Amino acid sequence: QVQLVESGGGLVQTGGSLRLSCVASGRSFKNFALAWFRQAPGKEREFVAASNGEGRTENSGTTSYTDSVKGRFTIFRNAAGNTVDLQMNNLKPEDTAVYYCATGAGVATLLAGLGVWGQGTQVTVTS
Asked: What CA–CA distances, in Å, run from 7 to 39, 54, 60, 62, 119?
């Protein structure tokens, strides 16, 4: 059974940093994307960052970010391909949300709400 477990959320002041971690288990994830999404209160879930799986597509092994976090967030994936961290620097109040780890064939799959999702971890940024 595929399972994702997130950790590392918490409370931080504006300008601070947090590192989220997601451990995936239940199969090999090397050919699958591991990604982070977030959902703020009253808003729809949005894509944050992804580490694309190895494979034959043009996006194989690459990373991608939503524009609002570029230059502040970095996604790291371990060599085994089953752990993905999200280093978040220069945090802003608008980054406050529940952050979810997800895995699927690709980001498009996850944007469609498919794939496997973790339970989420709360990140709160105070001004």
From this structure: 16, 25, 26, 23, 10
CB distance 42 to 55 below 8 Å: no
Max intra-chain CA distance, the chain: 44
Q: Kindly report, residue by residue over 6-63, the tens digit of the pLDDT.
A: 999 999 999 999 999 999 999 999 999 999 999 999 999 999 999 998 875 667 789 9
Judge whether 5 and 23 are in contact, CB under 8 Å.
Answer: yes
Nearest to 23 by CA among 8, 3, 53, 1: 3
Token pair listed for 70: 């570029």
Beta bridge partners of 23: 5, 83
